[in-house]
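Chapter review. Work through the record for Molybdopterin molybdenumtransferase before attempting the end-of-chapter questions.
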Amino acid sequence: MPRPDHRHAAAALPWDVARDLAHAAAAALVPRSLPLSAADGTTLATPLVAPAAVPPVDRSAMDGYAVAGEGPWQVLGTILAGSLDLPNLAPGEAYAIVTGASVPTGTTGVLQDELAVRTGAEVLGNVVPGQHIRRAGEECVAGEVLLPAGVRVDPSVLGLAAALGLDRLTVIPQPRVAAFVTGDELVQRGASGPGRVRDAIGPMLPGLIERAGATCTAVTQLPDSRSALIDALAKCDADVILVSGSSASGPADHLRAGLTALGAELVIDGVACRPGHPQALARFDDGRLVIGLPGNPFAALTAFLTLGVAALHRMRGLPLPTLPVAPIPGGLAGHPTSTRLVPVRVTPEGAVPVGHAGSAMLRGAAAADALAIIEPGPTTAITARLLSLDPGATHWPY
Ligand SMILES: Nc1nc2c(c(=O)[nH]1)N[C@H]1C(S)=C(S)[C@@H](COP(=O)(O)OP(=O)(O)OC[C@H]3O[C@@H](n4cnc5c(N)ncnc54)[C@H](O)[C@@H]3O)O[C@H]1N2
Ligand code: MOO
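Structure tokens for Molybdopterin molybdenumtransferase:
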């Protein structure tokens, strides 16, 4: 049976509309120049352009001998990767050379060590012209655009930037996210019991925030106190502030009143989805966003994946991700008026519901890879879009 209407039901937005609005309500953060060591997880704000050719000079691709002309060759010395004084090779001459060392002028090719027959100062073997030489500019030439703006900076991008000789990148920084977990009944250690509920949202948030490409600045417990919440929101300078457990209309739910007191604009006041319908998004004049996560832990997770991830994508300068579609063996019934978010395991046969999907339980989510997005209405969905439970997942599920 559908639940009785929540007081925000009238304002509740369709799930896709809310996701679009959360993306639109956020603004891309201002680009900054960051050292490579601080740029992992950011977004390129400008295209990555090669300032110079890579490699800058012809280099050996093997340990062996740089040879000139036809063999046999007289070995006249050794060139190391750091050698600066390079000889000019005349036909019949060779230098022992290491991988990555500049090949001297006149080199025909590099004879790989294992294939060389060395007798005293003479070396013999077969060399195809140009063999085992990495040509200058083989990877890129000066001025070449290697990556467009909007690419996520990951370790390989950082390595490439270093190989190009760059020390800094112009990037959209990672948004900073702080979380306030509210609830007088919450405890941080030990088991739940009468009058005590073990906090199950706080432990989820740092990993979710980091996977969503943001930095988690703090997860702080707050009592069910309006003044404490107002004070915490006013002092928090994070780009996104998550508040859990204060989103409904009970006597201990202070989020909306607190936002009103601080003059925040309530952009989203409820989303027509299950679980997670009391989720909310508000914006301060200075651009900081507040996202209300319902207290039921699975509902909090779905709300972060819906509004939180959408807003963070925009702050990172990224479009809203499109969601892959998968078959649902056996189908899933739609809710009459709300989008259902159903934990599924992604298998070669499709997205298989794992059960245990009540809004207060995380057993289903913990066993699942994704949420199947089931449109409202009387039909049974035999395919569905999938929202990954890992907001950092890019190439999945196939
Ligand atoms: N009269 C109505 N009551 C409720 C409605 C409604 O529409 N009308 N909606 C229900 C739904 S749906 C949800 S979800 C919750 C949202 O409530 P709040 O965001 O205000 O959160 P609380 O009331 O504080 O807590 C709800 C529930 O979750 C437990 N909780 C809270 N925080 C945590 C945590 N960090 N870890 C584990 N469990 C947590 C809390 O103890 C309560 O059991 O409202 C419904 N009520
Ligand atoms: O619909 Mo609530 O947000 O129980 O989960």
